[in-house]
Amino acid sequence: YPVNMKLPSTLLHKSNPNPRVSIEDILCDDCILHILSYLDPSDLLQVEQVNQRWAALSYCAWKHCQELKVSKTVTCKQLNDLLERTQKKLRTLDISNCSDSLVLTKKVLDSIETYCPNLESLSVADNFMKSSAARLIGDKYPNIKHLNLSYCENVNDKVMKILSSKCVNLHSLNLQGLIRLTGSCFSDFKSSLKSLVLRGCYGIKPSSFRILVEHCPELKTLDVSYTNIDTETLTYLAKYLPQLNSLRAEGTDIEWRSGPLNSLSGLHQLDIQDGVKVDDESIKEVCLSCPNLRSLDISDNYLVTNKGTTDLIRLTSLEELNIGGTEITNFSFFTKLQKLRKVGVTNCKAVDDEVCLQLLSNLPFLEVLDIENSSATWLAEELAKERSAILGRPVQLHAVEVF
């Protein structure tokens, strides 16, 4: 129970005086409701099966539910039942991956509108969406702030134009995997947009990104991984989006050594994993252009060697660093980055138990050490446990992925 929670006097006994009475019979309703408030919706459904009392209490607990993610097999009727339980308090709804059992028809969208009048975030990823459904979403939820349409079959520029013209208060938009987009819809995007994911949208023309900048000048988070964006276009984006603090550009042909990020000194997160032209000179230029980085992923770039580490140590604000899959074999530079909380060295065969010991001993704030597919043995896990005990505080090394 939470430290500041006042428990019924019956719970202050060291043991149950009547062994035939179960603990749920001892707990008062308020206490059970408090416990249920920590459960997610799927667990609440299970609790309903215990007995009539718990079913009634579980139903009451739904009024605290503001987020709901449904299973892949939910039907329209089942969705109605779930939404009704939330008593119109729902703000986030995720019906992704339900295309086999739930089609975005007018009936489904009407149900969502009825039971979710305060909806702010909607995810319909991996569903088939017709232009009529897009128009309905725009009509019913004009004030929605977060929309996830990733991998929605049939979503093209026409559909996006409809949505963009109606959903005028969008703050974040996920269009990952929409291969039919060319970018002509960007001219209808609104200036309220702060976060945009275009990952895998390889049909977008480089020239369309310039249109995006003109209509979304307040973007702070942008993902252009695995798109056809080029060096010249990225340089243009950086120049006119100086407030950008998160950029993901995995798997691109960008020439990083030419300094396309010179205008983004305030960038906090950068992901250039699996880049075609990422080498030591690229790392040098990135470190010079973005000295305030807190998170950097340069994994799966085999042209990055130990030479690049001489520049990485300049990033003294780094909290997350992933160098997995590079040719870096000297890991002593990590000790210069004392603020690191998360380190990724996956697929680095040079990482053994001794390296793990050095990282665990010399990085005081380390929480996550990912050494999957390295040369480390089971001793690494024991070292992590021992280090946690020495620190004398709750275990922060919560994910040592080795075995």
UniProtKB/TrEMBL annotation:
GO terms for cellular component: SCF ubiquitin ligase complex. The keyword Cytoplasm does not apply. InterPro entries: F-box-like_dom_sf, F-box_dom, Leu-rich_rpt, Leu-rich_rpt_Cys-con_subtyp, LRR_dom_sf. The keyword DNA-binding does not apply. Pfam families: F-box-like, LRR_6. GO terms for biological process: SCF-dependent proteasomal ubiquitin-dependent protein catabolic process. Keywords: Ubl conjugation pathway. Residues 27-65 form the F-box domain. PANTHER family: PARTNER OF PAIRED, ISOFORM B-RELATED. This is F-box domain-containing protein.
